[in-house]
Specification:
The structure is a single chain. This protein is of the alpha+beta class and 249 residues long. It folds into two domains: 109 residues, Roll (Ubiquitin-like (UB roll)); 128 residues, Fumarate Reductase Iron-sulfur Protein, Chain B, domain 2 (Orthogonal Bundle). 36% of the residues lie in helices and 11% in strands. The strands form two sheets. Strands 2-1-5-3-4 form a five-stranded mixed beta sheet. Strands 6-7 form a two-stranded antiparallel ribbon.
């Protein structure tokens, strides 16, 4: 395939940035989207130009690093896939493809298509964990009975990879789906109940501190999430937040 690429180029977070046009030729329909960008960068290097900076790591849909806005849609035209899982057969020969980074105040652009997602790390550090006694008397987790329905819901929430497609898609740049997935993952399990109140209050506080917007329940986050994280998790988060707000006597 021969394609026209409109790629966002920005030297640093203080640079204004602009779209730049490139041509790539003889792209296989079996290539992944990132492989196509690799070919573009190889062409740029051969021409003595600076390659396009973009994030990637596992290229298996696990790490969440390869997050791009493609033709106005998070992760591109396919559904339930990350950018690295998107293949060029989803595009047509001669098509023009617009490639941009996530757009959110809390996710500032570092360079070109790379954004700073450390806000998610700080939210996770605020409470997305459990404290475990590692003195040598720790019980096997499998010794604690967990209802299958709760275990399944917790596992579904745990599939969140923190790619921030929910934030990029939301008109308010809300991180509620991400935070709710991390809260639900632990609050549904007995191991996570001990610190449940402290966890939800600290994580929501950090989310607000990072500058993410409020949730208005439009549902775009669930639609664009490559792992299909359910809006039900936001309901769980709200329930846990109410519980956490009630002071113990």
């Amino acid at each position: 395939m021969d394609l026209t690429l409109k790629v966002w180029r920005q030297k640093n977070r203080n640079d204004k940035g602009k779209m730049k046009t490139y041509q790539v030729n003889d792209i296989s329909t079996d290539s992944s989207f990132l492989e196509m960008l690799d070919i573009l960068n190889n062409d740029l290097l051969l021409a003595g130009e600076e390659p396009v900076a973009f994030d990637h790591d596992c290229r298996e849909g696990i790490c969440g690093m390869c997050s791009l806005y493609i033709n106005g849609k998070a992760h591109g035209p396919d559904s339930r896939v990350t950018t690295c899982q998107l293949h060029m057969r989803k595009f047509k020969n001669g098509e023009t493809i617009y490639i941009e980074p996530w757009r959110a105040k809390a996710l500032p652009i570092i360079k070109d298509l790379v954004v700073d997602r450390s806000a998610f790390d700080r939210i996770q550090q605020a409470g997305g964990y459990i404290s475990v006694n590692t003195s040598g008397n720790t019980q096997d987790a499998n010794l604690t009975p967990v209802p299958k329905d709760d275990a399944d819901k917790s596992f579904d929430a745990a599939t969140c990879i923190g790619c921030a497609a929910c934030v990029a898609t939301c008109k308010n740049s809300s991180a509620m789906l991400f935070v709710s997935a991390k809260v639900s993952q632990l609050s549904l399990l007995p191991q996570g109940r001990v610190e449940a109140k402290k966890r939800v209050m600290n994580m929501v506080k950090q989310m607000d501190k990072e500058g993410f917007g409020n949730c208005s329940n439009t549902g775009s986050c669930e639609v664009e999430c490559p792992k299909g994280i359910s809006l039900e998790n936001i309901a769980i988060l709200n329930r846990e937040f109410v519980k956490g707000s009630i002071k113990d006597k």
